[in-house]
Design goal:
The complex is a heterodimer of chains A (459) and B (251). Chain A is mainly beta. In chain A, 12% of the residues lie in helices and 39% in strands. In chain A, strands 1, 2, 3, 4, 5 and 6 form a 6-stranded mixed sheet that branches. In chain B, helix 9 links the parallel strand 2 and strand 3. In chain B, helix 2 packs antiparallel against helix 4, helix 2 runs parallel beside helix 5 and helix 4 runs antiparallel to helix 5. The relative contact order of chain B is 0.14. Classes of the chains: A mainly beta (459), B alpha+beta (251). The interface between A and B is large, with 56 and 45 residues.
Chain lengths: 459, 251
């Protein structure tokens, strides 16, 4: 569902310790970490030491802030992004020694002692200029210890896009400070189903932080279970537009939908393969749900399962060599792994009697899923698919609402989006893959389910 | 009857790819719009074919707005044919006649079935989801119930299905549609498969009792169309069900 990235893959596997980070950092692009090595973070779990970052007030290059105070919005979005990343600790501006607007934005005009004094290792300073509906930012990242510029960025766009500009810059900060070993996910999107009426559900997409939500599919019928294609341009979804569950694909920019599969019975849980050559889905042509592969146009069905029980909900391994799916062949729904090439199948989960909605991590031997526990509550778990820890289960949510469902990994594999009814109505939540920092990103009065995190986009 | 509509867009895609034409499908549009507006009986009965024909017409009109004339042409042709077919079928359907007769005394004549206009739907014939096909309270229907996460038939369910078999045997022209539903618990994705299995279980029973498979259509609604909203075992038990409707049977 999410495109794996070789870059992230390499990162998750290799970025284990401080020593490694430091040892592998090319001198030309050293991270803004001083010799005491406080830049300590581990991807994929474990102890984190967040790097303190000071974001100085971003002011107009000349004159007073504009009425919308775009600089303040930019700074706030940047701080929230870096906080979310888990590798930075944005410092409280009230603690700053330098007053807003003081000092320049060049290494020569910054008194780095004032920033070292408040504990910052990284400093962001910038100015902006608004011209009508346009805005241009000049923002720079400094290594406080070295008193040197790490990277400068000039970003321009419509004033209304100030959040996007800040997200783009936050991505640059993550890349710069980790010397390209990590990529920010701040310009990614989350698709979800929004209830519009008793028999009317729409597909929406929003920024990863829940802002800028917009409707992509709205046709008065039930539209369910969106999944992204690998380049993030299209969503597959199931719609009852013609009275039964058929699989469609919508171009998220134009909003144009095409039918991919409208065969007799179910046409659900479409999952494009990482190489883009296949769409796995559930069909029930012969009155029993089985997993099939189709080509991207919805043709040439190839059947992967053939039995009398339920098989549904495929999700691809990052290399496309395996599929995790749900089958009730043991009595209740459990997760299984299959190699489509050989049809070799192996049971993945044994605990509990209701394990569903698998989502394979974008670059890891890890599958997130939803399970019913001994109190009949549904929670999010992960299960390992690695050879030495195959089937090891870890719990991510507990005692928060009765229903936590439909996990979906962020494209860097460090976060999971899911749906929860802990506030009453269902909403979309995000958390780390350790289950920490759980927070809603949709408003409490809306009803959102079935989140799907997009792949990384080019920015 | 209800579920025999097959979206034929895939076929349509092939057709317009071959017969590519660069002019607006004016003739097909007039024919389709006429056929849909003539579809009085079917749309008053709210049959699934009528809804589908209206949807197709709207899709075709959207395609015209996008200047995708070949796609529009194919959809207009489908809408026209389906609308004519729907009207013919509805007129011949005694159940539909009865439905309309029941409504007739109420002055003034009843409006056509509700077509909610959404702000962004851009047309008077927005979609009515298939639940409307099944939930019509004035149509005769049977319901069978299931245990949580199960799709095997209880003794009570088999009794109900035996009655359906009787009706179908007495009415060789009649068809039956079965909609499988789940309670709200569990995941949407799995419940769609579970609802499908529940509908299939009833279908298989009917087939074993000698009813031809072609007379039976099934669909799953997962957890999307509860008979009763709310939570708790009483509500859930009512929602884990197959809704069975015989169409085209005599009075």
């Amino acid at each position: 569902m999410i495109r794996p990235l070789a870059l992230v893959a390499a990162l998750v596997i290799t970025l284990g310790t401080v020593a490694e980070v430091r040892a592998q950092t090319p001198p030309a692009a050293a991270p803004a970490a001083p010799a005491d090595g406080r830049l300590t973070f581990e991807v994929g779990g474990g102890t984190l030491t967040r790097q303190p970052v000071a974001i100085a007030a971003i002011r107009p290059a000349e004159g007073r802030p504009d009425a919308d105070d775009l600089g303040a919005t930019f700074g706030a979005v940047l701080a929230a992004d870096l906080e979310f990343s888990g590798i930075f600790e944005p410092l409280d501006p009230r603690s700053f020694v330098e007053r807003p607007g003081e000092g320049g934005i060049t290494a020569a005009t910054i008194d780095f002692g004032k920033w070292a004094a408040v504990g910052a290792l990284t400093l962001v300073k910038g100015v902006y200029k608004r011209t009508g509906d346009k805005v241009a930012f000049d923002v720079r990242i400094f290594d406080v210890g070295k008193g040197a510029l790490v990277k400068g960025e000039k970003l321009e766009g419509p004033a209304a896009d100030v959040r996007r500009l800040a997200h783009v810059f936050a991505n640059r900060v993550v890349s710069a400070v980790t010397a390209g070993r990590m990529r920010g996910i701040f310009t990614t999107k989350i698709a979800a189903v929004k209830r519009a009426g008793p028999k009317n559900k729409e597909i929406w997409i929003m920024d990863y932080d829940g802002f800028n939500a917009r409707k992509v599919v709205s046709n008065g019928a039930l539209n369910l279970l969106p999944t992204w294609d690998r380049d993030g341009r299209n969503l597959y979804y199931t719609s009852y537009l013609r009275g039964k569950p058929d699989l469609y694909r919508v171009d998220v920019q134009s909003g144009q939908s095409v039918v991919i599969s409208a065969r007799s019975g179910l046409n659900t849980t479409g999952a494009p393969s990482p190489d883009g050559r296949n769409v796995a889905l559930t069909l029930s042509i012969d009155d029993n749900s089985e997993i099939y592969l189709l080509d991207p146009a919805g043709q040439s069905p190839r059947r992967l399962t053939d039995n009398t029980w339920i098989d549904t909900d495929p999700t691809w391994s990052p290399d496309g060599g395996r599929i995790a799916f749900v089958s009730d062949q043991s009595g209740g729904p459990q997760l299984y792994i299959m190699e489509p090439a050989t049809r070799m199948t192996r049971r993945l989960t044994y605990a509990g009697n209701y394990n569903v909605s698998p989502s394979w991590a974008p670059a890891d031997e890890l599958v997130a899923f939803s399970a019913r526990d001994e109190f009949n509550h549904f929670d999010i778990f992960t299960v390992s698919t690695a050879a030495d820890t195959f089937g090891d289960i870890k719990r991510l949510t507990q005692n928060e609402g009765k229903n936590n469902e439909n996990p979906s990994f962020s494209p860097d594999g460090r976060f999971v989006a899911f749906a929860s009814d802990r506030r009453g109505k269902y909403g979309v939540y995000v958390m780390t893959i350790d289950g920490t920092s759980q927070k809603p990103i949709t408003p409490p009065d809306a009803d959102y389910t079935a989140p799907a995190w997009s792949p990384l986009f080019g920015d | 009857m209800i579920f025999t509509l097959r979206p034929a867009l895939a076929t349509a895609l092939v057709v317009f790819a071959v017969a590519a034409c660069r002019t607006p499908p004016d003739k097909e549009r007039v024919e389709a719009e006429t056929a849909v507006s003539d579809m009085v009986t079917a749309s008053r009965c709210g049959t699934a074919e009528a809804t589908a024909a209206q949807n197709l017409l709207k899709e075709a009109q959207d395609k015209v707005n996008e200047k995708k004339w070949d796609e529009a042409r194919a959809l207009f042709v489908q809408a026209r044919d389906l609308a004519r077919q729907a009207e013919e079928k509805a007129k011949a359907d005694p159940e539909c006649a009865k439905l309309l007769a029941d409504r007739a005394p109420a002055p003034p004549p009843p409006p056509p079935p509700p077509a909610p206009v959404l702000p962004d739907a851009g047309g008077p014939t927005t979609n009515i989801s298939a639940g409307d096909t099944f939930d019509s309270s004035s149509a005769p229907g049977e319901t069978i119930y299931f245990a949580f996460n199960k799709y095997d038939l209880s003794a009570e369910a088999r009794e109900v299905l035996d009655r359906v078999v009787g009706t179908l045997e007495r009415n060789p022209q009649a068809a039956v549609s079965i909609a499988g539903h789940c309670d709200e618990r569990g995941s949407e994705d799995y419940n769609l498969a579970l609802g499908d299995k529940r509908a299939a279980a009833a279908k298989q029973y009917l087939v074993r009792r000698g009813i031809a498979g072609r007379r039976i259509t099934t669909a799953s609604f997962g957890e999307e169309q509860p008979a009763e909203t709310g939570s708790g075992e009483d509500v859930w038990a009512k929602n884990r069900r197959d809704e069975i409707r015989v169409t085209g049977a005599g009075p």
